[in-house]
Design goal:
Order of helices and strands: HHH
Radius of gyration: 27 Å
Helix content: over 70%
Largest sheet: none
Distance between the termini: 63 Å
Number of strands: 0
Oligomer: single chain
Number of domains: 1
Structural class: mainly alpha
Length: 170
């Protein structure tokens, strides 16, 4: 049996799942802003008349393309950080799944023990233990689902932003 200090509370699990969700949303918002910047730079370049001097046109075009390049680099960096947060969430989801599997195993052991007990009072207490284990399994399943949904939504949003940034240059 593990020491109680090594076992997370329900509130700690909920907080971590929510923190991961919030962190991914913050990164998604940054990607949205950066993707908008890339689009604005591209639209600006497309809208220019370019009727000045050859040198002026070249300098303006190079500067705008440089702005697009640097903005795309920032996007790639933020995108990579979001990938890392998604991976962390997936790994934590696996940890929660291990906890759930263990709780389900405990539930089976409690049921087996109840079948071997003859004393009604003992059976009543084991039923309480069984109900508590079942609540834990249900809680963990809910947290696994919340983590999965947050990660999948984050990946969907991330792909939308990638498509915006990866669209063809002028």
């Amino acid at each position: 049996m593990q020491k109680r200090g090594d076992i997370q509370t329900r509130s700690e699990i909920t907080e971590r799942v929510e923190k991961n969700r919030e962190d991914m949303r913050e990164k998604e918002e940054k990607l949205d802003k950066i993707a908008s910047d890339v689009e604005t730079v591209r639209q600006t370049l497309e809208s220019l008349d370019f009727r000045g001097t050859a040198e002026g046109i070249d300098e303006v075009e190079q500067a705008i393309e440089g702005a697009e390049d640097i903005t795309t680099e920032v996007f790639d960096r933020e995108d990579e950080e979001l990938e890392g947060k998604q991976q962390d969430t997936e790994e934590y989801q696996g940890e929660i799944q291990e906890k759930s599997d263990s709780s389900e195993s405990d539930l089976g052991k409690l049921s087996d023990a109840s079948g071997r007990i003859d004393t009604q009072e003992t059976i009543s207490e084991l039923v309480k233990a069984n109900e508590a284990a079942l609540r834990d399994v249900e809680f963990l399943a809910e947290q696994i689902e919340r983590a999965r949904e947050a990660r999948e939504e984050s990946r969907r949003v991330q792909e939308e932003h990638r498509a915006r940034v990866r669209s063809e240059r002028r």
